[in-house]
Structures are given as C-alpha cells and as structure tokens.
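Appendix B: complex inputs.
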Amino acid sequence: MFEHLDPRSPTPLYEQIAARLRLAVASGELRPGETLPSVRQLAARLRVNPATVVQAYRDLEGEGFVDMKQGAGTFVREVAADRRSAERTKQAGRLVRQLLQEAGQLGVTTHELTEAIRRELGAKVA
Amino acid sequence: MSHAIEIRDLQYRAGTFEIRDLAVNVPTGSMYGFLGPNGSGKTTTIRLMLGLLRPIKGTITVLGGAVPRESPRILARTGYVPEQPHLYTSLTVAEALAFHAAFYPTWDWTWATELLGQFQLRRDQGLARLSKGEMGKLEMLLALAQRPELLVLDEPTDGLDPVVRRDVLTALLDYVSQQNATVFISSHLVHELERICDWVGVMDRGRLVTELPMHSFKSGIKRLRVEHPPALPGDTPFVLLAREGGNGSLETWTVRGWQAPMQQYFAGVGASLREIVDLDLEEGFVELLRTFREPSTGA
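Resulting structure:
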C-alpha cells in the first residue's frame, strides 16, 4: 500500500502516510472495523520514525477516519459515502495538479495534454 | 521543551583541529540526525558529549546531568555505538554479552537473546572472526539490550551492506516504538537519516551550521528560477544562499528559510518567479555547506 512513500519529497512522511490511508478508506480498500497495523509494525515495515506513524494516525483520528483505542489498536471508522466521495475528488484534483505541473516543466501544452488524456482513456475503455 | 543533550559554548582543540562556540540542543524523545562531512567534528563532539574528551571550556548536560561530573550515572543510561568497534576480540559473542551486561542494571537478557536470533549471531562465535556486518550488528545489540534512555550512534551503518543496514535500523526503530528513547545518530548517509530523523543538526569545520526540525529544514530550502532578477537583491525575506546566471534574463537562486508568501518580494523588485524547485535533504545539505564555506556568495 505504501510503495509510493517518498522520504525525499517536501511533503512530510506523516502526511504521505495519512493521505494514502485516507484514500484507502475513501476507495473501500480499507473497510469499517478493519485494524491498521500497529505503530511498531508500520514503523519497522516502512523504516520510519514511530513518531511519524503516530502523527499520521492522530491526524486521521482527528478527521474521523479512524479510532485509536488504547491497547487495542487503531480501527477504521464508518465514513459516510459523500465524505468518501469528497476525498476521492480531492485526490483526483491533486493528481491533476501534479500532472499539470510536470507538463509545464516539460513544455507540454494544455491542448497536447487533453488530447493525450482522451487518447489514453479511449485505449483503456476499448 | 526538555533536552536530552545540551551543549553550550563548547570549545575544544587538538592540533590544528578546533571546535568553537558549539551549541547543540537535542530534544528529549527526538531522533536527531547529526550531519556533516568527514572530519567536520562529529565524532569529536560525540566523544566530548560522553566525557571521553575534555573541553577547554563550555558546559555539557546529558540526561539532566553535568558531564563529566555525573558521567557514571549518565553512561549507565546511555547506549553508545562507536565509529570503530571497541570490543575485546579475544571474547566470544556470549562472553561479550555477559561482560557488557555486568555494567548495566537495566540489561534485558530476554531481548538480547531475541536480537541474537534476529541478527543471526551465534553465541560461540569468536569476535576476531566476525565479519564487519556481524560486528556492526553485535555493537547495536549491546547498545539496545541495555535498554538505554539515550542512544548515541556514531556512523552505525557506515560500511555495512544494505541487508545488514536494514536489520540494524529495524531493530533500532522497534526499540524506539516500545520505549520513548532519544536517539542521536551521526552519519554522512543522508538518505538514511531523511527517513527516520525528526531533527537535524549540520556540522562543518568544528562549528554547527544549523539545527532545526527536519520538516523545517526540508520545506525551507528551495531553488528558485527568477526572471529579470534585480542586480542587488536588497532586503530579502529569505536567506539567499547562492545565485547563478543562466541564459539571458533567467537566474537560479538557492534560498533558505523559504515560505510561500515570500513570492511577493519578486513583484516588489520587478522580477518574476518562474518556478520553485524542492530540494531533498542531500541537496539542501550540499548547498548549505557550499555557501557556509564561501560566505561571500549571494547576499
């Protein structure tokens, strides 16, 4: 799930971890009641500071995505469908901004970009 | 914020090498990455910190106690992995463990045994015959099994292969997850620190160049592409580390202490900011040292 974690990115690691989990909840990849890995497990697996994992979990708890139960673990909460949809919309926007930024750096025009998107979508549907 | 390590006005000299006006603050519970090129004074600072060398002047406080007056009490609660292995090579692994355990009231035999298994070390192996990687793992095992409040690691993974490095770091992170210890880790392997540390201190030529939370360090250092830059930058809201001319009216500026609202500065001086490029820890570190050594560049 965390293949794309990039310690070199200016986005802090806790934010990257939280964003990935938010998306997993929004997409249904993580279901209500499911347990997240313990702080100890996830820190060891990702080779990050345990405090980073704690911070990610705390942020998610504050936003109502998970429940941290002392001694029992961290559980995915039931998140309303419109909230999950809003989260996916937010992520889609982020992907597009990233794409636009890279295209800008490479000198790809908006027209070329929309054409390419249309073509790729067509190829995928076909 | 309480500090596990506090160094004030430290001065030390050995031959031509000198440490001057050194101040270091390591927050309790942090993982502090101590960066610097070879020969910058990292190991000397660590040895001063542990009372193994005597400063000319300055104060050092570790875990609330003054060094060297309270060193015995401090060292009992500190795990230290030196740059060079410091174990008696005539011992076996089992003997080295027993020897070490005798000095530490908090020594944890259960965990030591568990780590022996994880690190695939055999009790009857003689230290003289250990590979570099096995020795590195044994050093880390000894420091961890004493369950210290503070871990001081001097280039703990230097020269180790990637598999061993990973084993050693995983064991370290596992310990920090269980116990809220402070970790002070010196390394020139910048990428490794980028992943695990939440504080950075950068040292060069016996002086501390900067010390701040990892996040501030990384988010504040940028490369900017500036069109129609002013000949004299004047009062910049950021620290201009370097400026390099490109082709024509475009220049590349390397800055520190950057925040998004500072974009307004460029309109004020009739320039425009074309692009903001993020730097990772290694690039930021290299830029910082380059300008630290040539303070005449830039503003």
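Chain B touches chain A through 24 residues (CB under 8 Å).
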